[in-house]
Amino acid sequence: MTDFEVWAPHRxxxxxxxxxxxxxxxxxxxxxxxxxxxxxxxxTAYAFLVDDDxxxxxxxxSRWQPTGVHGASRVYDDGGYRWQxxxxxxxxxxxxxxxxxxxxxxxPAGTFDSAIGKLDHLAGLGIDMVEVLPxxxxxxxxxxxxxGVGWYAxxxxxxxxxxxxxxxxxxxxxxxxxxxxVVYNHxxxxxxxxxxxxxxxxxxxxxxxxxxxxxxxxxxxxxxxxENALMWLRDFHVDGLRxxxxxxxxxxxxxxxxxxxAIEVEALSTHVxxxxxxxxxxxxNDAKLVxxxxxxxxxxxxxxxxxxxHTLHSALTGEGQGYYADFATAGLTGLAHVFTRAFxxxxxxxxxxxxxxxxxxxxxRVPGHRxxxxxxxxxxxxxxxxxxRLTETLSPGLLxxxxxxxxxxxxxxxxxxxxxxxxxxxxxxxxxxxxxxxxEAVRKGRTAEFAEHGWGEVEVPDPNAESTFENSKLDWDxxxxxxxxxxxxxxxxxxxxxxxxxxxxxxxxxEVDVDIDESARTVVLHRGRLRVACNLGPDVVTLALNxxxxxxxxxxxxxxxxxxxxxxPPESFAIVQxx
Length: 579
Prior knowledge:
There is one protein chain. This protein is of the alpha/beta class. The strands form eight sheets. The protein has an eight-stranded parallel β-barrel with strand order 8-9-12-15-16-17-20-21. Strands 22-23-24-29-26 form a five-stranded antiparallel β-sheet. It has a four-stranded antiparallel β-sheet with strand order 3-2-6-7, with no helix packed on it. Strand 13 and strand 14 form a beta hairpin. The mean pLDDT is 96.
């Protein structure tokens, strides 16, 4: 027997269609319709009929959509999967190294099961948590994942719900946690049937319809969001959630939905006996998100920090267009500021936004591990017209220097798939909706967006073309050739050093000093007894470290250390112990 229920407070009639047979549903005082069907068990197909409309609609909370987002839902038995991770005690975010990947392009097959075959590579690299781009049900055979409409269902494109559980299980067996990217700020443009049932929507943003978090009838909508988050953490054993673009969540209630989520995730963490992490993507430069609730914040555990990315990107590439302008102007001085303050814009003028932006971080209370740092991620690559990686712009030496700054920083470092060996495969924007008109709208929209940033139409790959998707898949054979193999070894050694030396993972920003020389293009991070010295310039430099050079722990090129001086070749780094 299965109990079916759906929230439809303003409908006069709701029926459930189970394996072709219609069953009436009864309404309670809160607008929930319910029916128990004796013949329905795991795998049973069902859909809802609303009012007099005979169009079957999938369950808004469907856990399984094997025939796509427009088809019938299926009853899913969470207890049917036999977990192997009973000894798993979780992975805390502080001190961890994250690795972001997209299941569809991580391997040639693009499935959860094929991704499992590459997990030993990640474990050997030293990864602690695997951050997976969205996996919920989306219309069409390929997508970044941010156009999802079936929030509770795992897309069949990658293998469905049981396959995702196998992937999480396999990560845990290898000692790695899983962070899942979830999108609550909008729904995709095809298959979003929520408004057929109830007032789930309250307008729209640049990506699509947004959910009703604070207006009339919003209480069940908030529960729809929060219970979805708890489902991933509880039923799929996920260890954390990356919350997409939280600045687009419109909520004027006294207790913001993010704070309420943090409260309930803390309760769940206590119950399951393992740490559960919430990581926000935010454009606000407001540390309130990651300030503990005891300190007046929302209590999230971390946030992506684009200011760190932008200052590193500008320093390494010299790019200064668009939102990079202020970071390019600030130069290495800005890099030093960000490595000790997290934000460049902290209540200061943003030329890109044409207004003041951000607020200072209280570095005495907010540790650096609450800010994720990265040289590349899906957005910063995929939102370039051709999806080109840093490998297309930087020499192997500068790629190694960027990695040294990343793993020598007081922040939580994250790699994008293939970055560890300097992958040359692009990661381009791709999707494929069944509706031809929608496909054309997506193509024109992306072309117009890129044109605003100075790219010509012929340079923008068609997001609907299968070749755009195929070109974005990793080439795993690359790492066997040079300079990729050497770069991979550099990343392994950097991660190992970060785990070996407490100074490199120390998260307190007010303990970090940074020496820079704009003309020579050198950066030296002071990390306790260690110095992370980088020469980003074209000439040999000798740096005065003001302390005797002891052990050279790692260097990308042969270096010389004598007394208190360190000589570095062009585009190279060294991590040394002093004193």
